[in-house]
Amino acid sequence: MENNQINSPENSLQEQSKDTNIQEIKTDFDLKYIENEVEQVISKNIFPVEIFPQPVQEIIKATNENLDFPIDFIGASLIYASSVAIGNTFKVEIKRGFQEGAVLYLAIVARAGTNKTHPLSFAIQPIIDRDKKTYQDYERAKKDYEKFSSLTKEEKRGIDEPIKPVWNKFLLSDYTPEALAEVHKFNKRGIGVYCDELAGWFKNFNRYNKGSEMEFWISNFNSKPINIDRKTNEPIFIPVPFISVCGTIQTGILKELAKDNRTQNGFIDRILFVIPDNLIKEYWGESELNPLIVQNWAGIITQLLNLPVQWDDTLNPVPEILHFTPEAKKLLFKWQRENTDLCNDAESEALAGIFSKLDMYVARLALILQMMRWVCNEGNKETISIEAVNGAIKLIEYFRKSAEKVFNILASNPAETLPDNKRNFYNALPKVFTTEQALQVCKQFEIPERTVKYFLTNKELFNNVKHGYYEKNF
Questions:
Q1: Among the four 188, 192, 311, 370, which has the fewest Cβ within 10 Å?
Q2: pTM for the model
Q3: Which of 142-151, 259-268, 403-412 bottoms out in mean pLDDT, i.e. has the lowest?
Q4: CATH top-level class for 51-279+286-412?
Q5: Domains of the chain: which residue ranges?
Q6: Taking all residues of the chain, what is their mean pLDDT, rounded to a whole number?
């Protein structure tokens, strides 16, 4: 691969700091100039491409230049695909009794038409190719099994009965919770859920099993055992689950995430948001992607998929445990103390909850980056290096700013964007009111009754408690 280092504003800033000793600047004007330059760089939430091994940086750069993949989207998608490929092969130990795997919940956020889906499709294509191959193997084995099953008792004599085949797959996009557990039962190495529209993931919660699916995903994030008792089929028990989730969502649908108590029960805290600054739809370019880029990414993921799994005597995976090097652990604990201070000083309980989950994510991302470095011959798979931890911290700070951006979107009051008369009418209504009360209040603002009745159907602003009774959402 061509060795082209991607230059980020952060790298440029580091070079500037090497060449300029701020202590030698004598004038207030020059000092303010330097401070303004620094502020302009750090105020933007720039995805830290430099944290990846060089071959992965080249993939990000090439797909951005030739396929118009937004840097944030392709970078996060490559991390997700690596997470699924690593699965239950490795965990990282922060200290005795405190281990983290590579499970991620990722949401790629942007308005329609800004190339959200294609980067994710590119990243998971090698895993899809693996699923295609295992499906072909399954089809052949199924035919052999059916052929044996069709034999008479006499014909079966002396022939070893084949094991009923199952499809050992990695990715799911459309499933019932029971089907998900069934797939995971046969692939205990780990699986991934891929949603082209992530809203379909959380909107379908409780569609099949009232009241339990969201709790299932909260539990899965913490790698709690999956235990499903079924009336018509055999029970399912998965003591070491691994299910990573990634999908795209339009910015305008983000507020759907806040419904059904998802901001209070910690569900949203577990999602890493990828939401670039000032993203726009790009013109098509005429340059073509070098096929070697596709091959190189396929090679990286294939090596991760080929990592062997250790099994215990109950045929459940036993992840290999990686430890931090002393300097990496020192850096990690220093960051954790700073993150803890941010949690304690957060302006809201919601932000405190989001920041607290970053403690787990920094270790998970360090594990993923270390394995990517190993595949690219820039590290080993015996310890977590300081380079991997430093990269994970940079990623976490990117995700922190993204979470704050999403929090501001979720916390915003849509009533403030209404025309003056409707906004004043909305503010004048009591928290809970009847249709008759609304029709009385509307007279103060010269709003027709028909308009009020239609206005009350706005589910973003009102909750229809029961017939004729409403509650304001803000």
A1: 311
A2: 0.79
A3: 259-268
A4: alpha beta
A5: 8-43, 51-279+286-412, 414-472
A6: 86
